[in-house]
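tmp note - Exodeoxyribonuclease III Xth
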Amino acid sequence: MKIATYNVNGVNGRLDVLLRWLEEASPDVVCLQELKAPDPKFPVKAIEAAGYGAIWHGQKSWNGVAILARDREPTLTRKGLPGDPDDTHSRYIEAAIDGMVIGCLYLPNGNPYPGPKFEYKLAWFDRLTAYAAELLELDVPVILAGDYNVMPTELDVYKPERWVNDALFRIEVKDAYHRLLEQGWTDALRQLHPGDRVYTFWDYFRNAFARDAGLRIDHFLLSPHVTKRLSAAGVDRHVRGWEHTSDHAPAWIELSDGPAEEDQ
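out:
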């Protein structure tokens, strides 16, 4: 089973790129971020024509998340992260697929630091951590995938010294990520590539992709049941080189065959 996460940076403006990649990679499940489209504008017909069922949580011009499943309909289990009823950002959606709970998230960027956007990021991280603990208590297979907007270690950023006071690399944000891992989650890509420089994002400016001046900010966190099945992980970095593409590349994991329930 192949599961991917992809910040598309505008699902309608880059629909041709998304459909091309879906046809090429044939993932079973896809978590999408930065739809930048309200719910009525989500391109559901094109997605369905490509062979995918979909659920989505959109927002005009900003944010937005979706989960796609090949040849099936994802079962919606949650829209929005609990903990703040006044939070109107479309940043979390969750589905049950093949005996697993899959959460798709788009964590706030947080820049500029310091300031209210950074404080909102830390508060959102706290809410995610609290909810993630509840998911682990269910003792079912869970995947939390998406754009976390954090580089967890110096290995995840091309020039760490330049990012010390950026909201994606501040010590408070890295600490929050590691507190999440300490609950019992596994960072899938780092688990299988512990010493490799693997990036998922390259800025549009300063020829970043050609220079491989990248960041690893798109992550899969796996509960123990899913970690047992992890067999491969990688990034389709060539997609970042396509015309009119997102500044992110799709990241993916593969799970060994067999229903997730067998590991319970």
